[in-house]
Every structure is written in structure tokens, then in C-alpha cells.
Amino acid sequence: MAAIYSGIQLKLKNTRTPWPDKLKLARFAWISTQCLLPNKEQVLFDWTNHALTCFYNKKVEMPPEVVEGLWTYLDDILHSRKLHNVLSQGKTISLRLTVAQFIIKESSKLPSLTRVLTVPGLEALTVLLRQGKAQISNPHQVIVVLGALQFVPLDSHCMEDYHSAFEAVHEALFAIIHCYPQVMLKASPTFLNCFYRLVSSVMHEGKQRSDTDRASEKDRESLLKCARLVERMYTHVASAAEDFTVLSSFMVAQYVSELQRVTLQPEIKAHLTEGIYCILDHCVEQDIKFLNTTLQMGVKEVFNELYSSYTHYHKSQRQGEEKYTV
């Protein structure tokens, strides 16, 4: 056995070694104590990422079952007790942000990998983001993370998968707002696009349904949590940076355009409405005129209804509170 698996690292790199054999060798190397490689965990992790990257960049060809096997192998590595023990001993496994983006992008194409690989990959990036410039000091790297967020699937038929993906994207955006506000401003179109995906997905999932198509109580509660997170994000976007409010009218236009297409469940709509009110707080008279001029007829009616309720309920209450405070 030792003779068969000797020189594993060279065989993994050898172009003459068939891909099915490489995958078998890699699996053996990970689980076997007979295979001694310097920094074995990092070597095998890098090899797997490199193999997948080469395949998706069309630099190599491999059978579909090998591609699936590589993804399964990567998932096994990330969730293994062995890796957990290595990390708990103070050792580290390096993962370049571009590779992390690749993992999120490509794994998101396979629905079965969303919860086991795409979401954990994004959660790992979020941990780094929360540590601020101590871990990620280059603004471009934060933009790379924003790019990765756009690939996370938010259209799963399983509410549990949808909720986990939604929450992972939200937490990453939330970390960027708090730790990298200047990057958020510079990359505002990308940031807003990522956030709009959350808003749009909640509206799609939260539309009113027939009695025969109603979700379970557990699914409704999960969706309600997502709506609360959208409201929370609107609040933080509105308060994070004054300079960001130049895009307030654009955010309102996105919201009413999406709202015009669906009839939302009342409890979902209530949270989204409170959130968009915070954005309307920063819309000046010129913004309102701009919206009334540029929005299409059906969307304009939705906006006017929204702005009327905002003026009657939210704005008057806020002005009263400010007057009382003074």
C-alpha cells in the first residue's frame, strides 16, 4: 500500500496521471496517516482549488463524475474533524480571496452545494470582514467579496436553503457597512445591486399566495426574519454615511418598481415599508420631482401611494419627535 501511494504530491501534479486516480490519491492522502506530506492540509486544499479552477477556466478536461467528486472532496475537507483539529491547534489554512470568490461562484451553480459549501465559504469571508483592516486592508479585496455576493443563489425552492443564503449575504453586507464604509461608497453600484437582490428575493418569496400554496408556519417565520433584516439594512444604509444618500432616489425607484409587480403579504410589506421610509427621509424635494418625472405610469402610482403614506404617517411622526426633542 505504501508503495502504491508513494510520491503522491508528484502524481497529483503529473499530467499523465488520470483524473480519477488523482482524486483517489487525494482522498487517501487526506485520511491516511501513512501519507506524510509537509503542510499536508494546505497542499491538498490548494490542489483541489487549483484543479477546479483549471477545469472551469477550460485549461483541462475531466469527466463530470470527477468534477462532482472534487466538489464533494472539497466539502469533506472543509467540514472534516481533521481540519477542525488542525485549526484548533493554532495552525492556519490560507485561502486567497480570489479563490474564495471562485468557490462561491462555481459552487452556487449546483443547488446541492448551496448550504454545504457556498454559504460556509461566504461566512468565512464575513468573519474576515468583521475583523476590519487588520485582516483585509486592501479596498480592492473588499470589492472582490462584493463581487462574490452576486453569485450566491437566492432562488432556492427550499426555504431553509434560501434563508441561510439570504442571511449570509446580509451579514457580509452588514460587515462592509460597519467596517468599510468608504469602500461601500466607492463601490456603491455593486453594493446596491447586492442589496437589491435581497429586497427582490424577499418580495418574490413574500407575495400573497392561494390557500393551497401557502407556506408552513416555520417557512413564514423564516421569511419574516428576512424581511426584518431588509428593514434593518435600509436603516443602516440610511444612517451609515450621508454621502450615500445621493443614491436614495435610485433605491426608492428600485423598490417601487419591484413592488408594482407583486402583492405582498401584509406582515412582509410592513417591514419593507418601514425600511424604505428611512431612505425617503433622505430624499429632498428635487429627488421627489425626479421620481415623479422618470417613473413609468404604473410605477409612479405605486410611488405616489407610498410617498403619501410616508408623509402622513412616518414623516409627520418624525417631525413631531424632533420638535419634542428640541
Write a brief structural summary.
The chain is mainly alpha-helical and 326 residues long. Helices cover 71% and strands 0% of the residues.
Oligomer state equals single chain
Helix content: over 70%
Report, as a whole number of angstroms, the end-to-end distance: 82 Å
Residue share in β-strands: under 5%
Compute the average pLDDT. 84
Largest sheet: none
| Structural class label | mainly alpha
Whole-number radius of gyration?
24 Å
Backbone shape:
elongated
According to DSSP, the number of beta strands is: 0
The run of helices and strands is HHHHHHHHHHHHHHHH
Low-confidence stretches: 1-5, 322-326
Count of separate DSSP helical elements? 16
Count of domain modules: 3
Pfam families: Urb2 (PF10441)
Protein name: Unhealthy ribosome biogenesis protein 2 homolog
InterPro entries: Ribosome_Biogenesis_Reg (IPR052609), Urb2/Npa2_C (IPR018849)
Domain Nucleolar 27S pre-rRNA processing Urb2/Npa2 C-terminal: 122-318
Q: What does this protein structure show overall?
A:
It holds the Pfam family Urb2. One of its GO terms (biological process) is regulation of hematopoietic stem cell differentiation. The chain is mainly α. The chain folds into 3 domains: 1-78, no CATH class; 95-180, no CATH class; 187-208 and 215-326. It is 71% helix and 0% strand. It is built from 16 helices and no strands. The protein has helices at 8-13, 19-31, 40-56, 64-78, 81-88, 97-107, 114-130, 139-149, 159-179, 181-186, 188-205, 217-240, 248-259, 266-280, 285-294, 297-325. α6 runs antiparallel to α7 and α11 (188-205) runs parallel beside α13 (248-259). It is elongated. The termini are far apart.
